[in-house]
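Attaching the record inline, Q. Sequence:
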Amino acid sequence: MPPIRVLIADDHAVVRQGLRTFLDLQPDVEVVAEAADGDEAVDAAVRLETDVVLMDLVMPGTDGVEAIRRLRDRGVPSRVIVLTSFVDDDKLFPAVRAGAAGYLLKDVQPQELVSAIRAVHAGGSPVDPAVAGRLLAQVADSTPGPRQPLTTREREVLVLIARGLPNKLIARDLGVSEKTVKTHVSSILGKLGLTDRTQAALHAVREGLVD
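Structure, as predicted:
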């Protein structure tokens, strides 16, 4: 299996070098490029067909949120993990809407970061607990309640989504096909009036289905 192609986007060279030094030690991860601002990040992601982008939110010129939005609008398949020092509502919540797949703080343990990269590449959505708390505060009043009750199986799938598992691992855990899991995920989003897995995970936390 080819390594996960990673792009590091951060305006601090020392941060980029530190991340690269550690990630280069991982046999299944390859850092293919670095970017110092959002424009460079978008260009590199398109040109190099990266799998995962580690995106700082605060950069000069084009910031991380706008870069995520441009990647989404251009249909770039790279999945973005926000990697930031800040837990500010005016930065994180727009990143959710822009389409980021994961949300971590820069004090994350190195091995947790590697696990997050692997999870995001596999379709999961890892979220730092502190970040999740801020996002939950934002969406608590705006997220609609269930339009229809979830089945027992759908609740099981929702819990596993909230734990960051991609469809393949959910299928293995429940002993069903990946196609069946996809059907459950679509049904869950429709019943809850949500648009993506991240919102579903936050809903599960808010409802007390997971810690």
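The mean pLDDT is 87. Residues 130 and 203 are 15 Å apart (CA to CA).

More tomorrow.
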